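Notebook B, p. 112. Complex prediction, attempt 2.
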Amino acid sequence: MDLLLWLEETAFSTWMRESGPAFFSTLVLHSVAMGFVVGVHVATNLRILGAAPRIPLSLMSRFFPVLWVNLVVVSLSGVLLLVAYPTKALTNPVFYLKLTAVVAALFITRSFMKGVLQDPPTDAGRAAGRDRMLAALSLLLWAGAVTAGRLLAYTYNTLMASHLY
Amino acid sequence: MDALLDFSQKSGIYDFMHSTWGWPAVETLHFMGLSLLIGTVGLFDLRMLGLAKGIPMNALHRLVPWGVGGYALNVMTGVMFVTSAPDQYLFNPAFQVKLALMGIAGINVLLFYRFPFDRVRRADAEADAPRAAKVAAAISLCCWIGVIVCGRLITYYRPPYHWCFWC
């Protein structure tokens, strides 16, 4: 708690909180980049599940530069939002649920990149049963991450550590 | 405005939205719809702009109905927001700009399917999209990103404490 108190009293954290444009533009970047990160995953997982069957599975990763750029933006803006209100997120279990869902989903993506998206048995049609199951799980995890992210604005129990003193 | 509120109250939407978890739940669906739209229409636009050549535009277009589904979800959830707190929206310049951008995106869609779509559909996997399709793709991406930005602005600057150059 002392660490959180120190962090939220730093000049940078205060500025992130109190400067309207800084906080707002970070929030906007986080939302738009989320759209692309989740969006590329939606498209990839739908393709693995059998939608748009004539997209070659082995070429789907050509969209991944979009994913990586936006993953960097979403992470950096996420860290900035965390610096603005560290206590609000870190004392909320929902925040850890969100992080867990994102990390688990990214592990699935990594396994796809070494498997079905790199060297698929067939380039057309739906993927094997195991991959389809993982794709469905990935969609669920992203839905969970989006839900948890939205709920962060409603479920926190302490906005700032200084409020506890 | 009264008509909107009336619709919301009589249909039960109002009570649901103002219950403990109503508003956040519908917001979550709105975010999921946004992701569906960006992930399908957004990627199709990026392919027309030259990214991921090798993926046939025709094959990628098969994902677009999922984006239309996301759009429909967001129109429904959007109506739930607006009718349950119309004063927060109608007088909010961010909402007005958002509607205008959606209008532009809509006209853009009509023009795209009327003119360059046929050539896009018949193009080879490695092909560059026709110039008109590229213009439509750029307009589409800008509009939808602008719609997301405005959507966030709506809740961040609430009337009457908003900035507004014309109202």
